[in-house]
Amino acid sequence: MSISTLTTLLSKNHLVRFQFTLVRYDARVKWGWDAAGGGCFTDSAGNYLNAGDGFLQHLDAFVERIEADARPVGEPAPGFEVWRFDRDSLSSSPWPLSEIEGCDHDPADVPDEATLAALTSAFSAVLDDAFNAPSLYDGRDLRAGH
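RESULT FIELD:
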């Protein structure tokens, strides 16, 4: 699945939330992304990254910010690691109808189970490519199927 698949699915079914974990050495940071809640990525400490309008802008800025956090100063030491996406940590949930009432959202934008599964699979593939592909500083390929 590609990012275009994900953006197509989100264009009609955006009332969904994702939670996932990034791992680096022994550190694990939980992140959340609410497709309809302004598109900000939020970590478990409540810090958020808002990067303007649109999913692609948010995702690009999020990946750049996380990569910058892991960039070594000078030559990377042996065993250096960048932040990696833990595929098993990914979960998703539709917005509860109680949160939709009173908002300008259409309940028809809540994904059904099959669409939620497709969204989750597409989001996983996008994060997998963004964080688990070999990088300049960490040559390991941890993407699914590689």
